[in-house]
Amino acid sequence: MSVPIITVAQMREWEKATWASSQTEAEVIRRVGKRIAKRARKLTGSGDSILILAGKGNNGNDAKAAGEFIDDRQVEIFNVASPETDITLLHELLHRKVALIIDGLFGIGLNRPLDEHWQKLISVVNASRVPVLAVDAPSGLNCDTGLPEGAAIEAALTLTVGAPKKGMLAQSAWPYVGRLEVTEDVGLVPCPLSSEMNWIQANDFEQFPPRRAEAGHKGLYGHLAILAGSMGYHGASVLASRAAQRAQPGLITLYTQEPVYHVVASQLQAVMAGIFAPEMKFPESTTAILMGPGMHGPGVADAMKKTVQRIWRDWPAPVVVDASALDLLAAGVLPKGPRVITPHPGEAARMLNSTSRQVQADRLHALRELSKRFGNCWVVLKGNQTLVGTKEGDVYVNSSGNPYMAQGGSGDVLSGYIGGLLAQPVLQSDIAKILRFAVWQHGATADALQEKNKIWVVEDLAAQLGNEG
User: Do residue 158 and residue 259 come from a single domain?
Assistant: First the structure.
């Protein structure tokens, strides 16, 4: 299940509740060490050298415990007691061929500036460019503010215990945290805490989407209409359509601009194709509409504006708006059905009359404001750790994905997949789960592609979408 994103003080409460349950710190440390070792083995190969940097506290104990569970690797445990004197030995150790550093110097409790000697030692680790697996938190990062205390380890991966800490999700923390993963099942009691922000986990989606009835037919699984594509941007409509197919709705019809109709239609088989007209009417079977991918050509906005606003306001079924169509929406309109917008930070900034920097500085606030301004809609605020939510209630933070998703067309794939899921009447009772699943599946598919291939492209993402979990 998704876990709350918590403060350091809340994590301490959770630990106290665990110790009061008769669970021992030693057992939790052993289990954490085992999880660290498992991740370290995945990041390295047989015979590789792993350097464990262990501080004086439990964070260092966690790191050292990992060494007991790492076999067929060369493991060196370096107990760092005095950074001023130990930095020389660190230089020597790093001159060897080290495949991975496990960082156990400081934990989540650090809340004071590091002295110059610790800062120098951390800078040596960062300058080595050896990938770092940080235990619970990158050493030097304040896990409440998301800011380094003078200096912080730049981890490739942070394996945090129990739940993410609030500061780890701040934009300022991203260069230090790297990829953030949560290790559960380490002996802590069930989490007694709650938060408005929650971390999406793969196990949130067991038995979802639900198994279909044996006698099911395409009429039961909805009809998605897509308004997309224009001269020079026709590929976006094709990607969105193919991604929608991966969600397996009953029917899909793409309506595109007349100049690109033939080139678009010739690339689609099961997806029906038509030409967009401003006053067009949709088939009665239509159960959801997606608008926006590739609507960039000259004059397209003028031709589409009234249609986009009419559908947003009046259509009774779910509507998804992405890309250029986001700029055509009117604020202050209360729609007649469920609505979803999928902006990246730049698009969100335009919709809020703000800047991308301001959006990224407080992504939760940006999401809430977007929802308020645009009819209490659902917002999928894309980017690192994509957010899903509305103007109030729980907001969900995506845990999957990687930087290689930063390719043109990735967003079109996501919006098409969301549209294909939302079109299915059997799923429409839980829009929050549909959106969480879509963003997680989108990222998890990219993670699987990255693990198997040095190079992959967005077309591969569209072709593989939906196979994870």
Answer: no
> CB of 399 within 8 A of CB of 180?
yes
- Cβ burial of 24 (10 Å; 0-12, 13-18, 19+) is exposed
Provide the residue count of the chain.
Answer: 469
Answer yes or no: are the C-beta atoms of 413 and 243 closer than 8 Å. yes
Instruction: Quote the CA–CA distance of 70 and 66 in Å, as a whole number.
Output: 7
Examine the domain organization and report whether 40 and 133 are in the same domain.
Answer: yes
C-alpha 406: how far from chain center: 12
Residue 302 lies in a domain: yes
Q: Which two tokens stand for residue 384?
A: 């690192």
Hey, is 196 helix, strand or coil? Answer: coil
Residue span of the structural domain in which 116 resides: 3-196
Is 204 among the domain residues?
no
Residue 379, beta-bridge partner list: 341, 389
- Cα torsion angle, 147, 150, 155, 159, sign: negative
Number of domains into which the chain is organized: 2
| Distance from C-alpha of 340 to C-alpha of 416, rounded to nearest angstrom | 12
Whose CA is closest to 411, among 419, 389, 286?
419
* Full DSSP string of 89-138: HHHHHHHS--SEEEEES--TT--SPPPHHHHHHHHHHHHHT--EEEESS-
Rounded to whole angstroms, the Cα distance separating 209 from 426 reads: 9
Question: Tell me: the pLDDT tens digits for 195-223?
Answer: 999 999 999 999 999 999 999 999 999 99
How much is the pTM? Answer: 0.96
Task: Tell me which residue of 122, 104, 114, 203 sits closest to 159, measured CA to CA.
Answer: 104
| Separation in Å, CA 209 to CA 2, 221, 342, 435 | 17, 12, 21, 12
Query: 235, 291, 225, 280: which is closest to 260 by C-alpha?
Result: 235
CATH of the domain at 160: 3.40.50.10260
Taking the C-alpha atoms of residue 115 and residue 23, their distance in angstroms, rounded to an integer, is 35
Residue 276's nearest CA partner among 249, 247, 297 is 297
Whether residue 209 has a cis bond before it, omega within 30° of 0: yes
Do 265 and 181 fall within a single domain? no
Residue 440 CA from chain centroid, whole number: 6
Give the 3-state secondary structure of residue 12. Answer: helix
312-340 residue pLDDT tens: 999 999 999 999 999 999 999 999 999 99
Residues 25 and 152 in one domain: yes
Dihedrals phi, psi of 37, to nearest 5 degrees: -60, -40
